[in-house]
Amino acid sequence: MLRRAQQPDRERDGGFTLNELLIVMAVTGVLLVVVGKGFLQNFTTMRQSQVRSESTGRVQNALEALSRDVRVADPVVIGTDTSLTVDVLRTGNCYRKTWSLASGVITQTTVTYANTQTCTGTSTGTTSSSFLRNVVNGSTPVFTYRDAAGAGTTPTAAHQIVLQLSVSAIQGAPISLQAAVDLRNVS
């Protein structure tokens, strides 16, 4: 029996002990947790960047559309810090467009006057839709009216309208964009 204990047992040397397997599994588990946490954090950061980029694009598109209609306005009908009404002439029709901010939503309302160069008389239709949501301008006006010298003025005397949009982001600071629109149809 003594001889047997001194000679290597070929069947017993062919594998790992239970303790060795448990240690390898524990070390592998710790490594997987560390590496997995890094990947998860990377994916989370990437998703947040993607959402912020999409939100910025949405605000830019809204600002571009609003700027385009304000630029061709003929004339500014009425305006405040949080609302603006303009007449837009297109394809033989007059469209009276109003943008107004209430409860964090800018709503666009369009009244159509068919076959006329003025937005008077009987309208042929009205549409209203949410133009932009999650607006958080606070005390910053959405619409600021300036005269030819750049000083503040009344909406109907404005030569330029500054549009300021701030929209809340899922995480981080709000997305704020601004555009100064020179009116082409002013006297």
Give the key terms.
alpha+beta, five-stranded antiparallel beta sheet
Shape: elongated
Uncertain residue ranges = none
- Biggest sheet strand order reads 1-2-3-4-5
Major sheet? 5 strands, antiparallel
Number of helices: 2
Number of DSSP strand runs:
8
Using only C-alpha atoms, the radius of gyration works out to 33 Å
N-to-C order of helices and strands: HHEEEEEEEE
Overall tally of structural domains: 1
Query: How far apart are the termini?
Result: 116 Å
Strand content: 25-35%
| Helix content range | 25-40%
Description of the molecule:
This protein is an alpha+beta fold. The chain has helices spanning 2-6, 18-71, and strands at 76-79, 83-90, 93-102, 105-113, 125-132, 143-146, 160-167, 175-182. The chain is elongated. The chain is built from 2 helices and 8 strands; from the N terminus they run H-H-E-E-E-E-E-E-E-E. Strand 1 (76-79) and strand 2 (83-90) form a beta hairpin. The chain has one domain (43-182). It is 32% helix and 32% strand. The longest helix has 54 residues, at 18-71. The mean pLDDT is 88.
Topology:
Layout: H1 2-6, H2 18-71, E1 76-79, E2 83-90, E3 93-102, E4 105-113, E5 125-132, E6 143-146, E7 160-167, E8 175-182
Antiparallel strand pairs: 1-2, 2-3, 3-4, 4-5, 6-7, 7-8
Can you give me a brief rundown of this structure?
The chain has helices at residues 2-6, 18-71, and strands at residues 76-79, 83-90, 93-102, 105-113, 125-132, 143-146, 160-167, 175-182. The protein is an alpha+beta fold and 187 residues long.
